[in-house]
Structures are given as structure tokens and as C-alpha cells.
Specification:
By secondary structure, the chain is an alpha/beta fold. It is built from 11 helices and 14 strands. The strands form 3 sheets. Strands 6-7-8-3-9-10 form a 6-stranded mixed sheet, with helices on both faces. The termini are far apart. Bound molecules: adenosine-5'-diphosphate. It comes from Cytobacillus spartinae.
């Protein structure tokens, strides 16, 4: 379904040139759910954008559904894009249109007549589980519902390939799971090939058949997800695998911490990539009337920022602790709040 051959992408930049993707070769088969994982700046977005012609490789070729998207332009590329659709982290919905109108939009563009359009939109609304929300505007929907609209719109014209650009990164863990389950359903029911990029290994583990790990513009490890989990070869892959295997280990830690800190709340922060825990903690101390005890955790620094988990203990008036936790939730970190009792 997808063939990437000797692809390189160089961007011009003020400092000279940036090689965003280098020496990438990849074959993705029909019906596969393929994941690409890497920290921020690894080249994932550039790679996925070359699959639908949003970026053109500097060298090499990209073929999707028998069309060489790295060569074609204009109306030919527009036609190809009907078979290669995309969903995004921030949904990219039309804010002034209802759910129904958003989903109908690509059908309108494709010239589907009104009767067919209405029928198809109804089918899609059922498929993604948005019955009853047809006339809502995006601002009236939860994050998960917005992504359901994004998915319905993306598959409206029966594409062959669905590209997912950090499609669950703005969602809480429970909603993430429900969206991932929907993607698996669609993959099974429609035989759709799915390529997703993410910095979260649990997304890969939950739904992908194979995974490519990207670092510094290159694919440094590639294989079936189960094998990569069982036997990661590269340092970076080991770190990603740890992201997912750590929770078992931390159960004990949490038990100990809750015994030691019976008042207030213990908060587990999960950082990946560019998240920075220091400014977050500084902000907590400065702006909230809480005491912040920094407890144990594993934080490692890379050139992209920090990753790992950290436990902190917040104590003070209940309302002030709640406000501090709301603030943490508004930051780009994974958060779990542990309470005694
Ligand atoms: P990722 O999606 O893994 O975060 P990207 O593909 O966005 O990685 O970026 C890879 C590298 O290419 C980064 O160094 C980034 O700064 C650079 N880059 C991405 N897009 C552009 C662009 N349009 N112009 C210049 N440099 C870019």
C-alpha cells in the first residue's frame, strides 16, 4: 500500500540546512496499522506529511496506493488525497459548522449528490458513535467527540489510507483508549491501512502491528510491536518500552508514598520529550498556596528535553491543592493523582 524508497528531506533554515528525514526505506502493507514513534524533532511529521504530498522529498520516492505522491502535483495530487486522508492532534474541524456539516464537507467537495450525502453522513455518524450530536457545533463537543468527527470526516470518501498525526495526544487516557478502539474497529471493518505517529508507546502497544522508531531523522529500529517490546535493541527503544512497563513497578512505590504522606495528594507526573518539569514545579510554588515536596522518580535529560516519571506531594488547603492539580492538568504532562483512602 505504501512504499518509501531512499527518502531524504532537507529543509532550508537560517542556520544552514536541516535534514528532517534521512535514508528512510519502508514498505507498509494493505490493512496494516503501522506506528512511528520518536521524540519531538525526530522527523515523524515530515515523514507522514510526505505520504500525502504535503511535503515533497528532496531525494527518493513515495508511492501510496499505486500513485507516486512524491512526483504528482495539481489535480492528480488532489485526486490521490481522496484516498489518503488525515486526522490531527487538534482536530482541524470547521468551527462554524455542525457535526453533520463537518462530516458532509469532504462529500460536497467530491461532488456527491445531496441524497447520497445525507445517507452517507448518517452511516458515518453511527459508525463513529455520534448519534444525538448531529447538530452540535465543535465547541459544544468533548475532545473525544471532536476526534470522532475528525475520523468520520476523514473516512467519508472511503480512503485507502488514514494518517494519524498525534491524534490522541490532546486527549485524556480514557478517551485515548476509546479513540484507539474506534481506529481498530475501522481498520477491521473497512480494511483501512493506518499510519500513526506518536511519542507515546502505549498507543503503539495498544493498536499497532509494526513500529518504526525514529531518532535524528532516521529509522533506527523497525519490527512487529510484540518483538520490539520483548527485545528492544536500541537505547531509545528501551526508553520507550520502559514508559509502558513502568506502571507495574510504580504500584509499589505509590503504596509506600501514600503511607508516608497521609495528608494532601501524591501526584505522578509523566514526562516525554519537550515537557519540562522544572518550570512546572516553579510555577506551582510561586502561584499556589501549597507546599510541594519533590519525591522520588526517574527523570532523564536528552537533547529534546526530559522524560520519565516524577512523584510530587502537594499539601495545603483542599481548594488550593485542587487548583494546583487543575494547573498541572492544563500542562502537557501525563498526570495521575493518588489519594489516601
Ligand atoms: P517530529 O514530528 O518528530 O517532531 P519534524 O518532522 O516536525 O519532527 O521535524 C524534524 C526536523 O525538521 C526538526 O529539526 C524541525 O525543526 C525541522 N523542520 C520541520 N519542519 C520544518 C520546516 N518547515 N522548515 C524548517 N525546518 C523544519
Amino acid at each position: 500500500m505504501i512504499s518509501i524508497k531512499d527518502v531524504k528531506k532537507i529543509y532550508p533554515s537560517k542556520k544552514g540546512k536541516v535534514t528532517a528525514v534521512d535514508e528512510v526505506n519502508l514498505e507498509i502493507t494493505e490493512g496494516e496499522i503501522f506506528g512511528v514513534i520518536g521524540y519531538s524533532g525526530a522527523g515523524k511529521s515530515t515523514l507522514i506529511r510526505m505520504l500525502n504530498g504535503l511535503e515533497i522529498p528532496t531525494e527518493g520516492s513515495v508511492t501510496v496506493a499505486n500513485r507516486m505522491v512524491s512526483k504528482i502535483r495539481g489535480s492528480e495530487l488532489r485526486k490521490a488525497r481522496q484516498e489518503i486522508s488525515m486526522i490531527f492532534q487538534h482536530f482541524n474541524l470547521l468551527w462554524s459548522r455542525t457535526v453533520r456539516e463537518n462530516i458532509a464537507f469532504p462529500l460536497e467537495i467530491a461532488g456527491v449528490n445531496k441524497t447520497q450525502r445525507l445517507k452517507r453522513v448518517d452511516e458515518l455518524i453511527k459508525l463513529v458513535g455520534l448519534e444525538g450530536r448531529e447538530d452540535a457545533y465543535p465547541s459544544q463537543l468533548s475532545g473525544g467527540q471532536k476526534q470522532r468527527v475528525g475520523i468520520a470526516r476523514a473516512i467519508a470518501n472511503n480512503p485507502k489510507v488514514l494518517l494519524c498525526d498525534e491524534a490522541t495526544s490532546a486527549l485524556d487516557p480514557q478517551t485515548t483508549d476509546s479513540i484507539l478502539e474506534l481506529l481498530v474497529d475501522i481498520n477491521k471493518q473497512l480494511g483501512l491501512t493506518i499510519v500513526l505517529i506518536t511519542h507515546e508507546m502505549h498507543v503503539i502497544r495498544k493498536i499497532c502491528h509494526r513500529v518504526a522508531v525514529m531518532e535524528n531523522a532516521r529509522i533506527v529500529e523497525l519490527g512487529p510491536v510484540l518483538e520490539v517490546f520483548k527485545n528492544p535493541q536500541q537505547e531509545i527503544t528501551k526508553r520507550f518500552v520502559q514508559q509502558v512497563t513502568e506502571p507495574e513497578e510504580t504500584k509499589e512505590t505509590v503504596g509506600h508514598l501514600l503511607e508516608q504522606y497521609p495528608h494532601g495528594k501524591v501526584v505522578q507526573l509523566g514526562f516525554v520529550g519537550e515537557a519540562a518539569e522544572q518550570p512546572l514545579i516553579t510555577n506551582l510554588i510561586r502561584h499556589y498556596d501549597v507546599t510541594v515536596n519533590i519525591l522520588q522518580g526517574k527523570i532523564s535529560q536528552t537533547q529534546d528535553g526530559s522524560y520519565g516519571t516524577l512523584f510530587i506531594h502537594l499539601d495545603g488547603e483542599e481548594s488550593e491543592v485542587s487548583k494546583a492539580i487543575d494547573f498541572i492538568h492544563s500542562q502537557q504532562v501525563g498526570v495521575e493523582v493518588m489519594t489516601n483512602g
